[in-house]
From TrEMBL:
<protein>
    <recommendedName>
        <fullName>catechol O-methyltransferase</fullName>
        <ecNumber>2.1.1.6</ecNumber>
    </recommendedName>
</protein>
<dbReference type="GO" id="GO:0008171">
    <property type="term" value="F:O-methyltransferase activity"/>
</dbReference>
<dbReference type="InterPro" id="IPR029063">
    <property type="entry name" value="SAM-dependent_MTases_sf"/>
</dbReference>
<dbReference type="Pfam" id="PF13578">
    <property type="entry name" value="Methyltransf_24"/>
</dbReference>
<dbReference type="GO" id="GO:0032259">
    <property type="term" value="P:methylation"/>
</dbReference>
<keyword id="KW-0949">S-adenosyl-L-methionine</keyword>
<comment type="similarity">
    <text>Belongs to the class I-like SAM-binding methyltransferase superfamily. Cation-dependent O-methyltransferase family.</text>
</comment>
<keyword id="KW-0808">Transferase</keyword>
<keyword id="KW-0489">Methyltransferase</keyword>
<dbReference type="GO" id="GO:0006584">
    <property type="term" value="P:catecholamine metabolic process"/>
</dbReference>
<dbReference type="InterPro" id="IPR002935">
    <property type="entry name" value="SAM_O-MeTrfase"/>
</dbReference>
<keyword id="KW-0128">Catecholamine metabolism</keyword>
Amino acid sequence: MPKPNSPPSMKFALDGREVDLLHWIYTRPDIKEISGNPAKVLAAIDEYSNAFSVLMNIGSAKGAHITSVIDQHKPSVFLELGVYVGYSAILFGQAVRSNGGKKYIGIEKNPEMAAVANQLVDLAGLRGFVQIIVGPSDEVLRELIRERNEITQVDMLMFDHWQELYRPDVWLLEELGVLVPGVTVLLADNIIMPGAPDYREWMEATPEKKRKLLKSLDVGSLRPNPDVVYETTVPEFNTVFGKVSRSMMFFTCKINKRTGCCGD
Ligand SMILES: C[S@@+](CC[C@H](N)C(=O)[O-])C[C@H]1O[C@@H](n2cnc3c(N)ncnc32)[C@H](O)[C@@H]1O
């Protein structure tokens, strides 16, 4: 059936598997035991991904690492760009809630994926704590921060949409003045594989190098702040593919306290 209004299927996604996941979960004989239990909903999503069609979720190895970062920093609000079927929304939402946080906000461009995610978040018993907003990350961030003033600082934010959007979106956050030295933690997945070299270059550059870069880059209407300095961590952990598979590496970035100039 032609789908003139839907984004095209990808090799490993958006081909109907995400809705099939819902049917599979909701027809399980143990659906009543799964209901209201985030860990069991996540285990069911993992089981589907292993048995039927791979899903582009953060997965248990990287997920466990990020929940330990949440345990350590205890963000009040956790923002995520790219929600897909809601695996990370459930995992991180539950971690933020159990650490006394206020809210998980996920931004997802694809309304069909947001609908699937909302259904699974509801099943996990996290409705009310996890909010999924439909729209492109840059538009929603502008609305939440500049227009509605709902977010005045970013405690913790995860980049997990498409890698080419990581750098423009971090530039936008710099422009909006919500990155707080000593507070904000930015996380990003798939930095090495498939890779986000332009994002990584920006996050690791000195203010001097950033000023030079900006002379040759087209930033459109964005206003990156070259004086924001990030501290980069590349965590090592075991994955199902062995110790530190390149595809599983990602960064934890902090605003350097010394800079103290964000959003000026
Ligand atoms: C890798 S998946 C997210 C996986 C999810 N974080 C998890 O671990 O369970 C990437 C998602 O980003 C979404 N996406 C792509 N471009 C986006 C944009 N500009 N704004 C928000 N979401 C976007 C895609 O629709 C897709 O669902």
